[in-house]
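A quick aside before the break. I want you to see a complete sequence-to-structure record at least once, exactly as it would be stored in a machine-readable document. Don't worry about memorizing anything.
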Amino acid sequence: MAAPSTPRPSLILPRASSHAHSQSSAVGPISDSAASRRRRGDFVFVVNPSGANGRTGKQWKQLLPHLRTRLADQCNICECITTGPSHAIDVTRKVIKDGADAVIAVGGDGTLHEVVNGFFCEGSPVHALDLGPDHSTTLGLIPLGTGSDFARTFGWASDPHDAIDRIVRGRKSKLDIGMMEGPNRDHFFVNVADIHLSAKAGYFASMYKRFGNLCYVFGALRGFWGHNNRDLRIKVNGGEWKTVHKVTALCIGNAKYFGGGMKITPTADPFSGSLEVVILQDFKWYDFLLKLHRLYGGTHLTVNGVSSIRAQTIEVMEVMANGDIFVQSDGEHFGFLPTKFSLLPGAVNFFC
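That is the input. The structure line, written in tokens, reads:
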């Protein structure tokens, strides 16, 4: 399938004018004054208008006047309205190559996941083509979607005005990024990757997004149907292969939360240089009901059948290869085992 086209993001001028653009418009010829604005740097806002059943697009339109007031004197404000799956990946790669100073994901964890993947291509970071090795593009986030689990790690409020304040302040930190290597492709994650039951539940949850956070409940119910705990083999930090018996779920956290607020990897820190791996073994459906409050509260590491380790890399495969163990990252379906997970420490500058 051919890659979708990636129209140049439209330029939002500091004041409302007849030059406002639609999602498919392109920036026209740059006048002297426009060239001056460009030298201040492009901040590209990648917006998923269909997020949260269309609320993201509406909130974005309401947010624009405030955004102009706070940022238009500091940078070139550009927008890209995504039109479908993977569009945010493609446009992020393009604007980074064009020299954007920042790319800000506007939406939920899915939009952030795609923008993060746009910072890489064929396993390597994307760079500006004409600005030299010292130029870098900063990642930002305005959480507006169904799930904002990554924002929860920092204790951020859901108010988008607070997110704009963080961007205006311009404080940056080097953010760790997770990398996944599967049989057919590489992929990146910023929040949590997971295997088996939780990944299967996430796959089904994506079919019920119209129900908001209830989609995670519906996904879990479908995931449990026909579920069997399975023996898996793991290799941590390049060591020896070990068998882990009756695995219910295995979660690799760069950050703490997934599934609509479950604090599954409670000690993970996306600035720490390591991943937290939490393994749930021999859980039955009633274990989840009895221990759900501990999973959401992040106090489950002392529960029987739960273990946690720190890792820079972990490889996971089936003992008996059937090719049916689900793998997901940041709530997005990745594929099936085997998969290698590794960390790229401080890979991306991040507004925080």
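Two observations worth writing down. Residues 1-8, 12-38 have pLDDT under 50 and may be disordered. Residues 52 and 83 are 15 Å apart (CA to CA). We'll return to this after the break.
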